Model the fold of this input.
Amino acid sequence: MVHSDLMTKYVLSNPNGVTLLGGGKVSATTLDHALRHAPHLVAADGAAATALELGHMPEAVIGDFDSLPNRIRDKMPPEILHHIPEQDSTDFEKCLSRVDSALILGVGFMGARIDHELSVYNTLVRYPEKHCIIVGDIDICVHAPRSLRIELEIGTRVSLFPLMPVTGISKGLLWPIDNIVFGPAGRIGTSNEASAETVEMTFHGDGMLLILPRRALPNLLNALNWQ
Done:
């Protein structure tokens, strides 16, 4: 039996942090790191198999179940299986739109199929109200808030990638972003770096992705104050 959740807005609502597990390659270290900050696990479709392999039973499995084998489904309580059969959204969007939390960490969404990864970033920008950070083995990525003040080690890589036209101003970056019009088919801001221990950025609109090294996750969480 699979619970059909077409009419329910939220499958899981928990203020203490939710980790979304995707179907890409993920190490046990990265997943455990995310669960320390966001301890409630939700698997996107076939990622339920990864959860079990790494010793975790998810609190919910959400997706169209096209990649969820019966042998994995049968190992799980039917009440945690939330089948969303529509094909107009990705499994990541199905999960993000049905999870409510002060902090959502997405693991297993970087470094696999590039089309899947790009769709994740597209979804981040379309759901600016969601407090979601994508966590990989090397990098983290977040839809940048309109204003951010973050403490970083000098020399830390700070990459900006726009998915919509956007402008901003900054302090503490080696190459300031003032008076630059960013756009996905125009000027981008990758491979910048912190030139001071405090970096301040203000964006005049939505659509900018901020990419930092994975080691900067605690710094970003402190700056965002989502926990």
The chain has six helices and 16 strands. The CA atoms of residues 11 and 213 lie 31 Å apart.
